[in-house]
Amino acid sequence: MAQKFQNLINGKWVDAVSGRTFENRNPANWEEVVGIFPKSGKEDVDAAVKAARAAFEKWRLVPAPKRGDIMRTIGDLLVKRKEEISREMTREMGKVLAETRGDVQEGIDTAYYAATEGRRLFGHTVPSELPNKFAMAMRVPIGVAGIITPWNFPMAIPTWKMFPAILSGNTCVFKPATDTPKTAAMLVEIMMEAGLPEGVVNIVHGGGSEVGNAITSHPDVDLISFTGSTGVGKQISRDSSETLKRVSLELGGKNAQIVLADADLDLALEAVLWGAFGTTGQRCTATSRLILEEKIYDKFIAMLVDRTNKLKLGDGLLPDSQVGPCVNEGQRKSVQEYVQIGKNEGAKLLAGGNFATEGALAKGWFHQPTIFGDVTPEMRLAKEEIFGPVLSVIRAKDFEESIRILNNTEYGLSSSIFTTDVNKAFTAVRDIQAGITYINAATIGAEAHLPFGGVKKTGNGHREGGWTVYDFYTEWKAVYVDYSGKLQRAQIDNY
Ligand code: NAD
Q1: pTM for this structure?
Q2: 458 CB less than 6 Å from ligand 1?
Q3: Ligand 1 centre from 329 Cα, in Å?
Q4: Domain ranges of the chain
Q5: Ligand 1 in contact with 252 (CB < 6 A)?
Q6: Strand order in 144-148's β-sheet?
Q7: Is 149 in the pocket of ligand 1 (CB under 6 A)?
Q8: Helix (H) or strand (E) holding 161
Q9: Which of 284, 411, 450 to mutate to test the pocket of ligand 1 (most atoms within 8 A of CB)?
Q10: Are 5 and 205 in contact (CB under 8 A)?
Q11: Helices 422-431 and 399-407: crossing angle, nearest 10°?
């Protein structure tokens, strides 16, 4: 009998008002039901927003260092349950255990960072232009934050959003992706166990068009933090504009790794295998394009194809699996469609290209790691986010052309260049259009205490992670204290 889960509203676990439910299945074995979850609607969102609004009035008055103490306890509880959560995450979304452990660790790092931020949340003091007058700017919480997340980082992404939101004094209504509701439920359970008052965090399970839309268009939600596809991000931007919400959008990517002729090719090879096929290519920062300097193209392709063909597909819970399944049937179908597009466009299929259907893999959404060579920058393969285990290899004449090709995309999340020439490395840092640039490292591997986000159509200019995310979750309030005992008119009495 599959485990049944509920929404958390105002500190109580409850079913959807309609009583409807949905199932979540293991992508490595679709016969296995991971859990049954409430298929919520607008009325559930209304109740959650009401609870979050009421809780905000008290939570905003709790001193930030005290809120930080709860964050520390959340971190401690995540450490305790890291292995259990990692296994459940692999079961519900497929990535291999080493990676789900990394995902939970990112949540732990974010909790401890937020705990210490409780004793910072720095403001500014500045001199006033008038005598006997004190001037400062301080951060204040905003209100109710709607948190809408994708399935590929079921722990890291919700924690990147909710921990700074709550540490800053806001309250949350959280809608996780329908492919990863169990990890989300475990996270919220831990947050409550750590001592958050009722209503500070609420979780409402269900689909994007029902629950997501009810949050983004709700008049009493002040902020939306969304991570997901560019199409849905644009929709959310429109839906939340009527009520003038503050909106942070972290969207798609088409990340590239450049390998120059002077690079350490063995190192570049390890990086591209990890960047392209880690998380089965389903990372916003995945290496989707490999740009090779012409002189080493044939040599590097031979090395890459050989190693790719040896990658072991399998259930992420098995110790020898290196690449797990796609998250669901639709995602694998979309990968297969791109393989067909690549063939039609005249790119050269060098590895993979098919579903994996043998033996134990037959019951999962497995797709072989796939490489296309001779891809040109105009092809759809080079332009569109595939979000699966497909790597497109593009030739570049020289360093300058490799940068032009890398920048020739509407996205701008992550990027990487392998070179031993320090001048080229720094020129690349200057000229690459992306929110993240790695020198001699893969396109994936962001750390919790640095800004995370992209340029161009990857987002709308906000950043998650580190100190920068606190700018999103707080308003600046300017405060003047006049201790002169008389009316002093700024810009008038002093000039
Ligand atoms: P998605 O856009 O389909 O869904 C993301 C979330 O939005 C889900 O919870 C979904 O239910 C919800 N949603 C869908 N329609 C909605 C609507 N109309 N209103 C409100 N909410 C709605 O994305 P996905 O398939 O879950 O994730 C993959 C995408 O996420 C990729 O494009 C990937 O690049 C992107 N992503 C970006 C980052 C980043 O930081 N830039 C990180 C991870 C994933």
Answers
A1: 0.97
A2: yes
A3: 17
A4: 7-251+459-478, 255-439
A5: yes
A6: 12-14, 7-9, 201-203, 171-175, 144-148, 223-227, 246-250
A7: yes
A8: helix 156-167
A9: 284
A10: yes
A11: 20
Terminal C-alpha separation, the chain: 78
Cβ of 213 below 6 Å from ligand 1: yes
* Mean pLDDT score of the chain: 97
Dist. CA 150 → ligand 1 center (Å):
5
Q: Which tokens sit at 162?
A: 């909710």
Please tell me the distance from the alpha carbon of residue 313 to that of residue 182, in angstroms, as a whole number.
Answer: 24
pLDDT digits (tens, 9 = 90+) for 401-418: 999 999 999 999 999 999
Cα gap 40→123, rounded to integer Å: 40
Residue minimizing CA distance to atom 39 of ligand 1: 250
Instruction: For the chain, state the CA radius of gyration.
Output: 24
**Mean pLDDT computed over 166-176:** 99
Mean pLDDT over 179-205 rounds to 98
Q: Which CATH number fits domain 7-251+459-478: 3.40.220.10, 3.40.605.10, 3.40.50.150, 3.30.390.50?
A: 3.40.605.10
Find where tokens 């995310």 sit. 469
Q: In CATH, what is the architecture of 255-439?
A: 3-Layer(aba) Sandwich (3.40)
Ligand 1 atom at shortest distance from the alpha carbon of 233: 2
